[in-house]
């Protein structure tokens, strides 16, 4: 095999392997009291940063606000429930392709593309849920959440090597 083809195959394999590992992490189930994201995990980063209950506590959200936001994320989770099984099947298909005697780069790319499209659809749905939830809160509540998130990001950045 030519060096260029081998390098391309290795790069493609690394990207697809990273996507496969990311998919496994995305399929994790939420713990008790956690709100599910597109694959059962936390809501995406953004206004809530994956810590919905804590964020709502910080801003003293009313029971009505909590109920509305809970319904928004439950609906999004329900909308994306079918994608979970489809995603598992795609990742199994990808693993099968990578363990085959002959590596079919076109088939691998096709599955990678399907996984990417599925993740994009889930991201769009959860972003819309986050927008809908943010609209339930007052501007002051959103500003407080953003302030806390900014402090958390600064602390995390201070601990990163670099």
UniProtKB/TrEMBL annotation:
Gene3D superfamilies: 1.20.120.1490
Family annotation (CDD domains): CpxP_like
Superkingdom, taxonomy of origin: Bacteria
Localization per record: Periplasm
First and last residue of the signal peptide: 1-28
Record keywords, A-Z: Periplasm, Signal
Pfam families: Metal_resist
Family in the record: Belongs to the CpxP/Spy family.
Record protein name field: Spy/CpxP family protein refolding chaperone
